[in-house]
C-alpha cells in the first residue's frame, strides 16, 4: 500500500476511537512495553501526544519509565524538519505549539548520541517494521542522528499491515519493535 492511502485510512480509524477507549488502550500499551528487553538502558525518548489527533497517550508510559528511574527525553521542534531533545523533569514547563504538540519551553538539552530508546509516533506500520508517520520527516531525520544501536519502538492502536508499504524511501528508518494492544512485534 502507499503511505498516502495508509495515512487516510488510519486517521479515519483513529477518529473512531472514543477518548475513554484511547485511554484504556494507551494503558495496555504501556504495560506491554514491559515485555521488551529495554530495562538496562537509561535514556528514553518519547513523543508527547497530540490530543486532537487521538494519538496513543504517552503519559502512562512516561509514568512507567519514571517509576523505573529512567531519564525521559521529549522533543521540541526547532526547524523545518529538525527537533531538539529535552530532559523531562518535575520542573519542565510544557506549551502547546501551533501543530497541537506539547513541547518543553526550556530545560536540559540531551544530544542524540545519549539516547538509548526512542518511542516513535506513527499512523501505520507493516510486518517488516516500516512505518508511516505524518510525512514531515521529523522522526526519520532525528533517528538518522541517533547511534545505530538506538532501539526504535512504535506505539499503535492497530495491528501491522500485512501488505508491505510500497513507497518506502531510502531515508526511512525501520522500527525494531511496535507495541499494540494485542501484540508486541519484533522486527
From TrEMBL:
One of its GO terms (biological process) is folic acid-containing compound biosynthetic process. One of its GO terms (molecular function) is ATP binding. Keywords: ATP-binding, Ligase, Magnesium, Metal-binding, Nucleotide-binding. It catalyses: (6S)-5-formyl-5,6,7,8-tetrahydrofolate + ATP = (6R)-5,10-methenyltetrahydrofolate + ADP + phosphate. Substrate binds at residues 48, 55. Its EC number is 6.3.3.2. The keyword Nucleotide-binding applies. ATP binds at residues 3-7, 131-139. Its cofactor is Mg(2+). It is an enzyme of class 6 (ligase). Belongs to the 5-formyltetrahydrofolate cyclo-ligase family. This is 5-formyltetrahydrofolate cyclo-ligase.
Amino acid at each position: 500500500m502507499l503511505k498516502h492511502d495508509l495515512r487516510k485510512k488510519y486517521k479515519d480509524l483513529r477518529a473512531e476511537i472514543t477518548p475513554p477507549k484511547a485511554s484504556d488502550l494507551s494503558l495496555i500499551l504501556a504495560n506491554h512495553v514491559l515485555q521488551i528487553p529495554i530495562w538496562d538502558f537509561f535514556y528514553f525518548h518519547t513523543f508527547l501526544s497530540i490530543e486532537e489527533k487521538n494519538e496513543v497517550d504517552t503519559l502512562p508510559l512516561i509514568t512507567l519509565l519514571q517509576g523505573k528511574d529512567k531519564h525521559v527525553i521529549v522533543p521540541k521542534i526547532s526547524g523545518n524538519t529538525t527537533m531538539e531533545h529535552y530532559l523531562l523533569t518535575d520542573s519542565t514547563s510544557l506549551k502547546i505549539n501551533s501543530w497541537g504538540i506539547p513541547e518543553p519551553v526550556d530545560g536540559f538539552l540531551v544530544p542524540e548520541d545519549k539516547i538509548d530508546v526512542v518511542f516513535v509516533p506513527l499512523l501505520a506500520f507493516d510486518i517488516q517494521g516500516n512505518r508511516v508517520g505524518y510525512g514531515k520527516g521529523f522522526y526519520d531525520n532525528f533517528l538518522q542522528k541517533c547511534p545505530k544501536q538506538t532501539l526504535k519502538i512504535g506505539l499503535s492502536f492497530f495491528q501491522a499491515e500485512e501488505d508491505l508499504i510500497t513507497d518506502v524511501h531510502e531515508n526511512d528508518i525501520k522500527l525494531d519493535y511496535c507495541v499494540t494492544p494485542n501484540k508486541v512485534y519484533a522486527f
